[in-house]
Amino acid sequence: MKLSNLGARSVSLFVIAAALALSACTKVSTPAEGGPTAGSAPTLQAVLQRGTLRVGDCLTFAPFGFYNKDGQPDGYDVDLAKELAKQMGVKLEVVNTTSANRIPNLQTSKVDVVFCNFTRNLERAKVIEFTTPYVVASEALLVKKSSGIQSVKDMGNRTIATVKGSTNGDEVRSLNIPIKIQEYDSSQAAILAVKQGQADAMIEDNNFLAYQATLDPELTVTNEALVPLEYNGFGVKAGDQAWLNYLNLFLFNINASKLNAQLYKKWFGTDPRYPLNPQF
Predict the structure, then answer these.
(1) What is the per-residue pLDDT across 215-266, written as a single tens digit (0 to 9) for each?
(2) pLDDT in tens, 173-200
(3) Is residue 239 part of a domain?
(4) If you ran DSSP here, which 8-state letter would residue 119 be given?
(5) Are residues 180 and 263 in the same domain?
(6) Is residue 87 domain-shared with residue 197, that is, in the same domain?
(7) Is residue 152 situated within a structural domain?
(8) Which domain holds residue 61?
(9) pTM
């Protein structure tokens, strides 16, 4: 009788343990909600199956991205996108993007990747992922030559134009100078504000501003680095490691072959100023 009770207890314990083990295994094998495999193929496979790569690019940010005289997307970022599509063996679709909708367009899968002067930072990395850097910049001011502004120190109680969704507004605030910040929907709108006297200066990447100053003899760029170097990468949807790995290898290859440096010189007229891999 005692032996029978022990046997019954053993069987019960075995059944409970088996149920727990089955439950644990089932939980681990379930894909995380909202991940790239939940209801859709990972991006790399989706692009290859679709036969089209959808790249979000800011087409009001020459020479990174703009519409040429034929109405077609053009620029440094567009050339990089063309090269990526070529190496993947797919067609390219460039989706005009703004600073403000870069992250929403990734999260809602309207684009597969964003090339749009995307500064890598920890706040953005909470919701998307970044590739290794492909271009480096600092910040400076675009001003009228007649303004007398030679440095941000001359900006006290003046108005500075920034672009909605960019990090520039936070950078201005961190300078602890009494400056009025005016946000605009695009870089071109911010530049126009400076030209028309609605803003005294625009803060943006020195690469972009140097190019803009070559287009208008009344504009100039202050000779300063307002913030630490900014390392810009491609933005991708969070959690899609295979796609991130692919893009990082693409960047490694075009940097090793010097193609990236050649495209930079084509659009900016000079060799890249800063190394992509800083020495710590």
Answers:
(1) 899 999 998 888 788 899 999 999 999 999 999 999 999 999 999 999 999 9
(2) 888 889 999 999 998 999 999 999 999 9
(3) yes
(4) B
(5) no
(6) no
(7) yes
(8) 43-136+231-268
(9) 0.71
Instruction: Compute the distance between CA of residue 75 and CA of residue 67 in angstroms, rounded to an integer.
Output: 8
> How do residues 24-38 score in pLDDT, each as one tens digit?
433 333 333 444 444
Q: Check residue 45 and give its pLDDT.
A: 96
How far is C-alpha 60 from the chain's CA centre? 15
- Let me know the angle formed at the C-alpha of 172 by 145 and 213, rounded to the nearest 5 degrees: 30
Kindly state whether residues 72 and 125 are assigned to the same domain: yes
> Which DSSP letter does residue 126 get?
G
Beta strands in the chain (DSSP E): 52-57, 60-61, 65-67, 73-74, 91-96, 113-115, 128-130, 135-137, 139-144, 159-163, 180-184, 201-205, 219-221, 230-232, 235-237
Q: What is the DSSP letter of 83?
A: H
**Are residue 143 and residue 209 in the same domain, yes or no?**
yes
Check: CB of residue 93 under 8 Å from CB of residue 115. Answer: no
Enter the tokens of residue 95: 């989706």
Distance separating alpha carbons of residues 233 and 229, to the nearest angstrom: 13
> Does the residue 10 lie in any domain?
no
* Rounded CA separation 177/158 (Å): 10
pLDDT for 20 beyond 70? no
Instruction: Verify that 214 and 239 share a domain, yes or no.
Output: no
